[in-house]
TrEMBL record:
Organism classification: Bacteria, Bacillati, Chloroflexota, Ktedonobacteria, Ktedonobacterales
Descriptive protein name: Activator of HSP90 ATPase
All copies of domain Activator of Hsp90 ATPase homologue 1/2-like C-terminal, residue ranges: 12-132
Family of this protein: Belongs to the AHA1 family.
Pfam families named in the record: AHSA1
Taxonomic source organism: Dictyobacter kobayashii
InterPro entries found in the cross-reference section: ASHA1/2-like_C (IPR013538), START-like_dom_sf (IPR023393)
Length: 144
């Protein structure tokens, strides 16, 4: 099954990265500020992109390993996301943190897969910018 894999090195501590991926205030600074998230395994996180006409994404929080891993299962989104999951592996490196992001479980490489890859590239750059400069670019990229 096709998998999106994206790596980023970020000049921030693993704890700061973990917080930016799990805390509502942090996620709002790099992904979307219209969200509801409770950082608890089993809870349902909702990310709304309705003001851009892109709808609502929901993920079940499957695993939270402080400073090391965040894993979600897609529960609502594009039909091609059914059965997919996203994972952020967080590893300390000399000058910060390495993130290996995966979005796996796609049935095929198609236009939605490629669009999803581009969107995640954009948002991981936004996450990096937020953590390194205090300013991310939440919302939607032009190509959403």
């Amino acid at each position: 099954m096709p998998t999106i894999v994206i790596e980023r090195s970020i000049a921030a501590t693993p704890g700061s990265v973990f917080d930016a991926l799990t805390q509502q205030d942090g996620i709002a600074r790099w992904w979307t500020n219209d969200l509801t998230v409770k950082p608890e395994v089993g809870s349902l996180a909702e990310f709304r992109f309705t003001r851009w006409g892109a709808g609502i994404l929901q993920f079940e929080i499957a695993e939270l390993d402080a400073g090391a891993k965040v894993h979600w299962f897609s529960r609502k989104g594009p039909p091609q996301w059914a059965g997919t999951s996203v994972t952020w592996q967080i590893t300390p490196i000399q000058d910060g943190t390495k993130i290996v992001f995966t979005h796996d479980g796609f049935a095929q490489v198609d236009a939605v897969y490629e669009q999803t890859r581009g969107n995640w590239e954009y948002f991981l750059d936004s996450l990096k910018s937020f953590l390194e400069t205090g300013k991310g670019t939440p919302g939607l990229p032009v190509f959403f």
